[in-house]
Amino acid sequence: MLKGEEAKSEKLGKERLTICKLCSANAEKFKLLVIRKAAMPRAFDNVLTKDIIWKLNSKAWMTATYFMEYLQKFNCVMGH
Predict the structure, then answer these.
(1) Is 12's pLDDT higher than 70?
(2) 56 Cβ contact list (under 8 Å, min separation 6)
(3) E strands of the chain, at which residues?
């Protein structure tokens, strides 16, 4: 940087994401649980809704409630 030039700075993105993936002992896959700070992005609207369970949390953290709901859905699918 030369004398008289302004320093440019950019803020780092604060996007956070938590992803949880379950599978059975037989390698049967289950939907991803994705926890974000905001709702599902419009770019993904109607594209990934079948493959991903989207949840919202202000800090994108896994909560006990989210985990229990996810685990119960997994148990229902595996109990077929």
Answers:
(1) no
(2) 35, 36, 37, 38, 39
(3) 17-20, 32-36, 52-56
30 pLDDT more than 60: yes
Residues 63, 66, 68: CA angle, nearest 5 degrees: 105
Tokens 């119960």 belong to residue: 72
Among 19, 32, 13, 23, which Cα is nearest to 61's? 19
Higher pLDDT, 55 or 45: 55
Residue 23 pairs in a beta bridge with 29
Q: Which residues pair with 20 in a beta bridge?
A: 33
